[in-house]
Amino acid sequence: MGIWGMLAYSTASIGLFLFAPMSARIRALMPDGYTSGDFMRLRYGQTAWKIFLVLTLFYSLTWLVSMAMAGGILLNALSGIRYEYGMTVILAVCVIYTMRGGLYAVIGTDFIQSLIILIGVVVVGFAVLQQVEMETIYANLTAEKPALLDVMFPAAIIAVFNNLLFGLGEIFHNNVWWSRAFAFRQGVGRKAYTIAGLIWLPIPIAAGFVALASGALGVPVPSPDMVGPLVIASVLGEIGAVAIFVIVFSSLASSIDSLLAATADLITEDIYRRMWRPGATPGQLKKVAQMVTLALGLGTWLVCLPRIGTLATVLFFAGPLVGSMIWPIITGLYWKRANSQGAISGMVLGSIVGLVVYFQIGWYVASLVGTVVSMVCVIFFTVIQPANYSWQTLRQGE
Amino acid sequence: MFSNGLIALLVYGALILSAITSTILIILFIQEWKRGTLW
Q: In a designed cystine with A140, which of A56, A216, A278, A299 is the match (CB 3.0 to 4.6 A)?
């Protein structure tokens, strides 16, 4: 998708900017909240909560699988380590420290990993510019791959909006972001998510640029998944190969550990405690969360053993499910009139129609359609059957 | 077609923003550490 692709992936930062004030509202409405599932259950009732759990768990597992697969593929491309070994090592490391330290360890390591990624991106970007001039890269792209520079590339333009909605849906619904909104000290969430948006904004552009330089640098690329790391290893030589190893490991680990912790919390709190053992003690819940983390790691490992497809196809399959949750979440947080019929029909119909579009047209439009269908359902039911929700219900919990 | 100038602007902008945000992260880390609120 070229330049549009770089911009498309950057749009996830808009989700972070928008989630900054939302995180403050979440904490104000639910000072004792624990998961995004808590919100759906208290706001929309049991049916919407269960549908939400199915969608979010499916999405989280898809993301987890795609990240672990990426670990195997990239470590294989960079160092020749067999796919199975690379994938196993990255998963095992994340599972061990997430089990030991929980969300606390995850947030701490995420900070260090983000710093490594940022510094890595800056160093690599300027190193590429030292080796090859911007004009040369541009001339090479114009001659070899002009489509990457095309402004009027319809699928790429649609993909920008699709990715934007994917990013919004992912951040607005997923317990990865909600669990932190609950855990942060008062006032920290807004600042943290705003800075996170600023951090993410340039990353896809800088990383995409490195990939675009592959032609001018004469680096052969066997698959789009590997282009960035191979260019970096080529530009920075042996040191670069080690550096990119660390950067790639950090990038993937920061996602995998967050998903493990947040999904384990969701399963422990929303499924184990709410549906099975309401009287479980904090100690028992902690043990269960550790076991769930281990089970998630093992399950992901088993799914990843055969290489299913490219990373994008695996992840974007979940796009419509994620997009269909945007409207129920936003309206649930800000509109008293939003109701469960709208949320349920929005999530179900948005997901179904989005998936049909995914298979009939393509991944680049699936989230877009899922979101629009969900929006129509939510607004329709809000208008014809407005609720009068009391925010106190969220504060009081049960 | 995206022009060379626009792409250069995007790339240099992204690299400079990354450098700024990494500096902000380091400063915040030191501030929290000094305040004793890091751990």
A: A216
Residues A368, A158: contact at Cβ < 8 Å? yes
Q: How far is residue A34's CA from residue A27's CA, in Å, rounded to a whole number?
A: 10
Query: What is the identity of the amino acid at A104?
Result: Y
- ipTM for the complex shown: 0.88
Report pLDDT for A255: 85
Per DSSP, A272 falls in state I
CA distance A12 to A239: 31
**Closest by alpha carbon to A393, among A47, A51, A32, A48?**
A32
Amino acid identity of A369? Answer: V
In one-letter notation, the amino acid at residue A18 is L
Q: Cβ-count burial of A154 within 10 angstroms (0-12 exposed, 13-18 middle, 19+ buried)?
A: exposed
Helix (H, G, I), strand (E, B) or coil at A110: helix
In angstroms, rounded to a whole number, what is the distance separating the alpha carbons of residues A323 and A381?
18
DSSP A223: S
Q: Which of B1, B6, B20 is the mutation pick for testing A, counting most A CBs within 10 A?
A: B1
Q: What is the pLDDT of residues A167-225, one digit of tens each?
A: 999 999 999 899 999 988 888 899 999 999 999 999 999 888 888 888 788 777 666 66
Q: Phi and psi (nearest 5°) for A201?
A: -45, -50
Residue A346 Cα distances to A63, A168, A326, B17, angstroms: 22, 16, 9, 38
- pTM attached to this predicted model: 0.88
Helix, strand, coil % in chain A, rounded to nearest 5: 85, 0, 15
CA dihedral B12, A236, A69, A193 (to 10 degrees): -30
How many of the other CB atoms lie within 10 Å of CB of A46?
12
Contact B17 A146 (CB under 8 A): no
Contact B18 A198 (CB under 8 A): no
B27 lies within 8 A of chain A by CB: no
Tell me how far the alpha carbon of residue A89 is from its chain's centroid.
21
